[in-house]
């Protein structure tokens, strides 16, 4: 069924909780906001970072960008490696590629950081394209923009001709599901990531899986 598959990164292929939440904590502290509970910062995993600072801590856009800069001050050096790949992911990716499927990353994280993480976990070779929220100064502020760019790179001149039924988007948050639906893709939510209770159901995910084995089974159809 699926010839092309887009993957989110955080909460879908890897568990980045410690790195992301600790760096958010670090950024908030620079504004005099002390948040000792890392669990409370889990909603930062997935959506664009600037939007999260504005939504969850009431920052204006200028302060949110400053908070992002403080976040990356720590994340780009330390937080990026405070991360773990979910068991079974590497094997699943290898099998999908061996069966002839084309894989790409569509992440809200800056492209250079995504590439470093993929290389760190030795899974970069499975993806024909890696699309993040920022690359060479070009900002893609929504998941829809990220998904559109990934589709354009995967499909090239066939973007408007190929059946979207052959394409799946896999992610752990409502933003991934919304990004898939914006282009008529099959949306697959993974419940082992960081979605809130019923978030994936409410977003209208076509499939929701509870394990990497279940995910591989659906993607191999």
Structure described in brief:
The chain is α/β, with parallel strands linked by helices and 221 residues long.
Task: Walk me through the structure.
It is built from nine helices and ten strands. With 221 residues, it is an alpha/beta fold. Helices cover 41% and strands 15% of the residues. The chain starts with a strand and ends with a helix. The strands form three sheets. A six-stranded parallel sheet has the order 5-4-1-8-9-10, sandwiched between helices.
List the helices and strands and how they pair.
Layout lengths: L3 E4 L6 E2 L1 H13 L19 H9 L3 H15 L8 E2 L3 H10 L3 E5 L4 H10 L8 E3 L2 E2 L2 E2 L3 H13 L11 E5 L2 H8 L4 E5 L8 H5 L3 E3 L2 H8 L2
Helix pairs in contact: 1-3, 2-3, 6-7
């Amino acid at each position: 069924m699926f010839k092309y598959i887009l993957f989110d990164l955080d909460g879908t292929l890897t568990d980045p909780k410690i790195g992301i939440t600790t760096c958010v904590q670090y950024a908030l502290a620079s504004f005099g906001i002390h948040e000792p509970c890392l669990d409370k910062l889990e909603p930062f995993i997935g959506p664009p970072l600037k939007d999260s600072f504005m939504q969850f801590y009431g920052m204006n856009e200028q302060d949110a960008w400053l908070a992002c800069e403080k976040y990356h001050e720590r994340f780009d050096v330390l937080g990026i490696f405070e991360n773990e790949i979910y068991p079974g992911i590497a094997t699943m990716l290898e099998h999908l590629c061996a069966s002839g499927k084309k894989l790409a990353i569509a992440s809200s994280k800056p492209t250079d950081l995504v590439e470093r993480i993929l290389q760190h976990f030795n899974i970069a070779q499975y993806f024909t394209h890696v699309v993040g929220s920022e690359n060479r100064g070009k900002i893609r502020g929504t998941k829809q923009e990220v998904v559109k760019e990934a589709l354009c790179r995967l499909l090239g001149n066939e973007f408007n001709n190929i059946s979207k039924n052959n394409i799946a988007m896999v992610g752990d948050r409502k933003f991934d599901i919304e990004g898939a639906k914006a282009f008529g893709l099959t949306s697959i939510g993974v419940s082992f990531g960081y979605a809130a209770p019923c978030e994936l159901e409410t977003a209208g995910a076509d499939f929701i899986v509870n394990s990497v084995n279940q995910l591989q089974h659906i993607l191999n159809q």
